[in-house]
From TrEMBL:
This is Probable membrane transporter protein. It is found in: Cell membrane. It comes from the Bacteria. The chain crosses the membrane at residues 12-39, 78-96, 108-127, 147-167, 179-200, 206-226, 233-253. It is a multi-pass membrane protein. It comes from Undibacterium jejuense. It holds the Pfam family TauE. Belongs to the 4-toluene sulfonate uptake permease (TSUP) (TC 2.A.102) family.
Amino acid sequence: MLIPQSFIVYPLLTTMAFVAGTADAIAGGGGLITVPALLLAGASPFQALGTDKLQSAIGELSATWHFLRRGGLSLKPLLLPLLLTCTGALLGVLALRSFPLHALEKFIPWLLLGILIYYIFGMRSGLKADESSVPKRGVLPSLGAGIGFYNGFFGPGTGTLWSIALMKWMKLSIHQATMWTKPLNLAANCAALALFVMIGNINYQLAIVMGIGSFAGGKFGASLVLKVSAKRLRLVFVSLMGLSTAAMFIKYYV
C-alpha cells in the first residue's frame, strides 16, 4: 500500500487534482496529470489507476451535477451508451488485471505519449469536423463500449476521446460535447471503480485528498465551460501533460 514519504505529497497531489479536475471539465484528459502524479508519488501502476478512478469520479460527479442543475444536460439520449460504457469499463479492468506488472510499467509511458499526441492533434482535427453532415447516432453505443473498455483498462485521456468522438460523429459543439462527456465518464469510472474496490487496488487516503481537489476543480471548470475560451488552459494543460509523460520515461527507462 502506498504510504507517502513526506507530508508535502498531500498538498501537491491535491493541487494536481484541482488542475486536472478543472482542465478535465473543460477539455478532458485530467487523468494524464493525476495518474503520472500518483506513479511519481510511489504508487504501483495498478494502485495508481484504481486510486485515480475514485478521485476522478468525484470530480466527474461535481461537473455532471453542475450541468444537470443548470439544465444544459439531458441523460435520456445517453441511457444505452451509459450501459454499454459501464460494460466496456468492467471488461477493461478485467483485461488490465491479466497484464503483467513489469510489462505495464514499460507500456504506460508510451501509452501516455500516444494519448498526449492524440490529444494535441486529434482535438484540432475534431474541431474541424464537417458540421453540415448528418449526426451518426447509431455509432454512439459502439463508441460507449470501445471508449468504456479503454477507460477501464487505462483511463487517462478518456474525456478527450469522448469529446472528439461526440464532435465528429454526433456533430455537437465543443461545449455540448464537454457536457455529454461528464456522465459517460462518470458511469465508466464508477463501474471500473467497483472492481478496483473488490480487488483492493485503491489508496483511499490519497483518493479522498485528491478527490477534494478534483471536486473543486470540476466545479470550477464546469462554471467556465460556457463563459470563457479554453485555449489558454489547454496550453497549461498540455505543458503539464508533457512534463508528466517525460517523467514517466525517466522513471521507467532511465
